[in-house]
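Input/output pair, single chain:
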Amino acid sequence: MRKIKLGISVILVMTALLLLSCSSDKKTTNPPTTFSPAGMVLIQAKDVSFQMGSSGNLDNEQPVHTVTFSADFWMDTTEVTQVDYEAVMSQAYTAYMTPSWHDPYGLGTRYPAYYVTWGDAALYCNARSLRDGLDTVYTYSAIVGTPGNMCELTNAAYDLTKSGYRLPTEAQWEFAARGGTTTDFSWGKDFDPYPETSSDTTEVNNHAVWYMNAWQYGAEEPEFGTHQVASKLPNAYRLYDMAGNLYEWCNDWYGDYSSGPVTDPTGPTTGDWRCTRGGSWGNHTQYLRSSNRTFFIPDYTYYFIGFRAVVPAQ
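Output:
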């Protein structure tokens, strides 16, 4: 009888181990999937509110208003680089320009892509979405020019409910740029007073590529033009070059701010200019403030405008 009980016990133990092994194998062969795109940082914004704008600076940054987000999103840690642009668009970044256009402003794999229209940036986002198996966000009726090479999108539209990559809204951009701060600059300082008028600009230089590298010094200066991405300190959200290096295209048409609280604002439905943010290598410090707004014609290219992408958290 004891041998029978012992045999039954052994069988039960072996059965349990077999079931555990099967369960373990199942977890190994079918792991839970979490969308975690390379080169991006998760911005935890769901149900978070912040004060967008500034009351003490330029008129177009007013009124200060409360913005709330309904979802988290991923954002590129750096501006899209020339090598990233080439890889996604399957074409040489410099194929449509003579070297004389590029050399003074920074050319190389780790330099940010500039001379990119808003339409070029949108096509890049669509191509990146297709590469990663996501829905494309941007639609259009025609492409004027060569896709990705200073093109214009006719009747451009977008669907922000899609899963793919796109340009950040102004609100997303400012929230991410602030990195949780309420000061003018993401490194915890305000514009007035600030050492722009003094001989000590070390703190600004540590965080931003700015006018110390500007065109008034000439291309013969070693610091002239853009810098390689992530060559300065990141903000608290681990994002680089949100102040300086290149202005960055945003998704929004440029327009007046809301006078009251808003959730997930996307800007006007039409316009003449697209918003840009962040300031560039040729700007003074007032343009490096997190709330600073600028705007440009979307179908032109500029040697001081680049972009970075966002994608919804899944």
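Helices lie at 2-29, 82-89, 99-102, 118-131, 170-178, 202-207. Confidence is low (pLDDT under 50) at residues 1-33.
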